[in-house]
Amino acid sequence: MKVTIVGTGYVGLVTGACFAEVGINVNCVDIDKLKIDNLKKGILPIYEPGLEDIVERNYSKERLFFSTNLGESIQGSEVIFIAVGTPPDEDGSADLKYVLDVAREVGENMSSYLLVVTKSTVPVGTAEKVRKAVQEALNKRGVNIEFDVASNPEFLKEGAAVDDFLRPDRIVVGIDSNRAEDLMKRLYKPFVLNGHPIIFMDIPSAEMTKYAANAMLATKISFMNDVANLCELMGANVNMVRKGIGSDPRIGNKFIYPGIGYGGSCFPKDVKALIKTAKENGYNLRVLNSVEEVNDDQKKVMFDKVKKYFNNNLKGKVIALWGLSFKPNTDDMREAPALVLIENFLKEGAIVKAYDPVSMHESKRKIGDVITYCNDMYEATNGADCLLLATEWSEFRLPKFDDLKKMMNNHVVFDGRNIYDKQELEGLGFEYFCLGVRDRLS
Hints:
13% strand; 18 helices; six-stranded parallel sheet; Rossmann fold; 44% helix; N-(1-d-carboxylethyl)-l-norvaline Dehydrogenase, domain 2
């Protein structure tokens, strides 16, 4: 079986590499020649645990190919996945330009039946726009070639995407023909041997499922952060509250950890797009509007604590920042809370010394050298007036606090992910501030 993946970003590259891993011949196509040349050399555009090995292995075994030529790549393919970016427009809606550009090019080059699958996160109704674009291109050529359109949203967690794809808990597919259903069953058969289902549904429902899933997870995060802020005011401990409600199977214990806000390529963009879609259809998603508002505010909570600690004067203060990516095990800094923290600290005249295991190159690309990048976590704390944990990388979980005490000018820790033990740190001579627990800064 041969498939083509258009787009070698996060979704496209993981999808292509994992299909190749089970023996499918995969052509990955991208208009970025430098990216394709680098992939042929084993240089990946993203950091994702386990992905580099899979790409190198399947490329060397000639099951995975990289090209800038879509017309050549789709010849002989049975399925083509559109996995290009859908960046948010100024109004929050998903920009479908790249998706529809690919659809038109497919129609201009296909020579036999194709199943055209949208893998990008797209709003309800996109599949019909893709169908129309392909058909219009075929009409211009004056040819009559059969094709189907399907929706196959991804549910990959950054930092665990390879495992999620190879061992999915569910695969959602929107189809409107038996031929498309049979093709998708054959394609995904190696991935459902663990007994987890392929859930077939109509195409609009599949498109909505992706947005609804991310919106629900974002809602849980914002809800818990809102509760954490109230706990501080009321004298409750959000860590205890989380355990209490998380033991209820109707709620569950995932995505209810307080923090400094969600980020990344999915939640912020998808929440905005779903809100915009609702408005276009005359409906106001009141809950999601609040989810977004809470998240924007939450990214400033730790900054406000630090500023209050230093009596509203941060000029010249050295802030040690641990973590830059929006979550561990990725170099993704899109909508990362660390960016908001850095911006606010610099506005107040503070000096930021940062360390992140993998995303410092991405930070330099985004904001340049306005902060100091350190070689390790301890270098960042040398001469620091405070330490702020922004991303809960594993190597930050058990630091040598005795060493930190010798390095830091001022012994205070701001824990933006609630991973440290307050009593332990206070016993070592540190002041400790986290989220959702009353303290003198509340």
